Amino acid sequence: FQNKQNRFWAEKLYETRLIISRALWTEDKKKKAQKLLVKTKQQLKQFIPLAEVSFILGKIQEQDKNWDLAFKLYEKALTEKMDPSLRDKILWAEAWLAYKQNLNPQALEKWSQLSELTTDNNLKLRSLFWTGRTLERIKSGSGIDTFQKFIDQHPLRYYGVLSQRQIQKPSTPLQTQAN
For the segment 60-78, what is each residue's pLDDT rounded down to a tens digit? Predict the structure, then answer.
């Protein structure tokens, strides 16, 4: 896989194995999927970045409620070179898993990283909303401030409406123009 043509085929092998692994996992053949992903890591680790392999293995572990191993695999994935959209998925998965586990400082850290790094405005807004929910959970007054800022900036967007509901503020009225 050293020359360009071989690298091309290594990437095709990688993509194909990811598709097959996801299909096996979907068909409840998790062990086969994991085996194929581990084999892919072993065979291709010197040639191409394997962040998505670690991410998928992490999602499988998360599904099995192996939280610590899922976190480790997500962290490993973040050390690899990757597409920004995959980085966003991994950061979201880490933040959401931390939130579900009541690991509030870790959730706040990951949502903060995500909102700073992502170029996806919807994902940025979603992570800011869940930052507010986490702050609210730890009884920080910053949670209400976060929701209020959200309402001020995006009153009619989905998370703006949820923020209004969260702090029990009346909905923002729509402006009508008189002719």
Answer: 999 999 999 999 999 999 9
